[in-house]
Amino acid sequence: MDIMGLMKKAQAVQAKMKDVQEELERLEVEGQSGGGMVKITLNAKGQMKAIALDPSLLKPEDREMVEDLILAAHADARAKADRLTEEKMQAVTAGLPLPPGMKLPF
Q: Quick check: pTM over 0.70?
């Protein structure tokens, strides 16, 4: 095993990881529920950036339903953000000899 080559590869991966982390803060995903009546925008790191509610939902008697729709839209956006993050990380670690199942922290 070439330890110097592995060290250089690890340094390159570290630099790419920093770039990917910055990119994940900029990339946005949108989750929806209620047929698009509730939309939540997150960055790929899971930070909520925006929420949009259809005006027809703003009735006091619909409060519980709206709360459920917000949770569902957030879960949808979070799942998309997680998939995007995983794709970006796989691209960074491609070719790195990691044991099966090992993930780098991000």
A: no
